[in-house]
Amino acid sequence: MPPVCFRSGNDAVSSMSRHSQRGRGGRDEGRDCYGVAYSPQISLSTSSVKEIEVPSSALEISMMQHVGSAGNTSNSLRPRKEKKLTYVLNGADDTKHCAGINCLCLLKSLGQDEFDYLFTGSRDGTLKRWALAEDAAAWSATFESHVDWVNDAVLTGSNTLVSCSSDTTVKAWNLLSDGTCIRTFRQHSDYVTCLAAAEKNSNIVASGGLGGEVFIWDLEAALAPLSKSNHAAEDECSNNANSLESSLPSNSLRPINLSDNSSQKATQSQGYVPIAAKGHKESVYALAVNDQGTLLVSGGTEKVVRVWDPRTGIKTMKLRGHTDNIRALLLDSTGRFCLSGSSDSMIRLWDLGQQRCVHSYAVHTDSIWALASNPTFSHVYSGGRDLSLYLTDLSTRESVLICTEEHPILQLGLHDDGVWVATSDSSVHRWPAEPHNPLKVFQKGGSFLAGNLSFSRARVSLEGSTPVPVYREPSVSIPGIPGIVQHEILNNKRHVLTKDTTGSVKLWDISRGVVIENYGEVSFAQKKEELFEMVSIPSWYSVDSRLGSLSVHLETPQCFSAEMYSADLNIAGKPEDDKVNLARETLKGLLAHWLTKRKRRLGSQASPNGGIPSGKDMSTRTTCLSRVEVDGNAENDSTVHPPFEFSAASPPSVITEGSHGGPWRKKITELDGTEDEKDFPWWVLDCVLNNRLPPRENTKCSFYLHPCEGSTLQIIKQGKLSAPRILRIHKVVNYVVEKMVLDKPLDSMNVDETFSPGMPGGQILPPVGDTSLLPGLKPRQNLKPSIEILCNNQVLSPDMSLATSGAGMVMDDLKTGNGIWLRSYFVHVKFVGIVHSSGNACCDHKIIVPLRKSWKPIRCQI
Description:
The protein is mainly beta. The chain contains 12 helices and 54 strands. The strands form 15 sheets. The chain has a 5-stranded antiparallel β-sheet with strand order 38-39-4-43-44, with no helix packed on it. A 5-stranded antiparallel β-sheet has the order 25-26-27-28-32, with no helix packed on it. A hairpin with a 5-residue loop joins strand 34 and strand 35. The longest helix has 14 residues, at about 730-740. One of its GO terms (molecular function) is ubiquitin binding. Keywords: Repeat, WD repeat.
């Protein structure tokens, strides 16, 4: 809702609604940051003078700072908040990760001429496949569908990769494809943190998450095609938006512990339901399954190891001993022994037959986040928050420090004679480890005996007996791209300043998705000050760097509040006074490839206005004029202007959600034109296809013109004025010249075209602004008064906008109020601000305080 001011006599009333925002913070260590009412819109005019509108009454509502509101009112047609559209700006080299690597897994080649493959899952939301050579790794494919961090991944069978994410989904992929997601499961209610697969039973996969849920999946049944009857029901609740034309229909699954029998029956009729292992009351961070898939262990923030029968989901035992979150679990091939690593810095070896801990190993000085064992389960590799990778002999308790990473270690993967290490950095390294003959590592020296109490290892470290790493450099490295760790939206609302993990500062143009300047390693704060512009444009998007790159979020109707003149955007072929809606043009640029593909598919079936030809398209949404309006200034075509052209070399990825299913992610160049209202928010399609926008809020501001005290000039009585926020000051000058000077009778002027007596100097100065735009000027009305506009005693530039002059200038001294003076000899006019009776300003461009009866509109004092 906009702040609304009513003026009646000396009373003024203001109201303002507030936004409600939802967000999630980080969960546990190591996983950092895991109805709307509208006002009718007045049509816009492109005339330089007519853009200033004169209401018929001074009692008209003033929309000074108009921002969108969340929630619902009795008159609202939207029952809930609309779905947003996000686009992720990818770096120049999209074959590399740009955020920490949370997981990795390895696939051995099936023949001599084939490669071994490494799969990595990242906090940038993607998985990548790497072809491994003896001393190198080459990018092979990117798997893109998750919309949040990828937390774990496992291989099962001969051609299936399963991943889980903080977006609460589990996805199955064809691992030898170019990135095809064959199924998405939405069973979990919170972040999915871990997976486990049975090596010799390719059907069994378990998943656990922060909701305390553990599900056991039979992949053969879960990926089986549905019957025709079920397929029809599935069409209404499909969740596989990333693979729209997949040969396997997607599932929409719900937890099987639903109390509502009707809901449970509906779920079962739509597809496979996994087995739920019930018992966890808190978050689950670690899972492990034996080779045959007959035993499952889990651990988390409850500090206990639970043992389950995955065939039934029944808990068989619970093991206590750790004093903090359990982060890593391993089972030997027989299911007899279990290894656990915890945030209490301890490794424990459990005998499941005896149901007790038989050994504990104090090797690390901080949390343990990753474990891997050699094939015989005689040695364990461990890593964690202390950046160290250790090898420990489980029988002799002898340990050795293999290497030290620069970032915390998140997961390990043994491969041939080395171990791949995933860290919170975007790079992956392989270190020599000799998993088939660990004694070779111990022979290099530097070993020590692991203690059996956590404080014993810490005490040794404090005494200066820190082990020396066996290896200083990795044998193979897969470099990543530095991730963005700091960002700032600049005042022009088109550029974002960023700083990455290497300290490099860059300037991004979010309407084109490119870096326009790389400043190198400079002061971020200083560069931000240098780029400061005195300009006020509504905030039409939000940005975050959670995925290591810039994610730009567009939400209706707020995203349509920003406009600029085509001349300011240097758009050739358009009149300089044409208003350009930044969000609309950005959406056109993002979906240009999709629109081209769509037109080719539809052909002659497309409707004349480019709308969706299906009978059920968006008729219920677009026919209500109180909710949408046609942008009459913009062409109804797919023309993309240069300031909004996205690079085809590094195209951004779109993250959004339609009327069916859940969120999905794709590069804009991979959209095939089949996506429709089931995949995109309705307001996006209505904008791009039908040229319709929601009511554009915050596009106008209201003000009054009053003669200065002591002035003999009579002003035309016209009440409050309304003009676009982006209107330039020189056009206000033009308006003042025409309405206040040129409309004066000619007999009030001297023959030499000077003002009446009292005019100092008797000479007219050149005008400020382009007076040639004034309509209706007669040759004899050849006045050229000099007019200056001041705010807080500062002369405003003729090119400054109303929004900037009425908002940005008050930052110098809010107590002076919000006033603009128009000065030309005897022409002194100023805007009226709302000031408390005590003299303190009650509003600025960001904060509007609701008015009380003791507040009254008076002229701002400068």
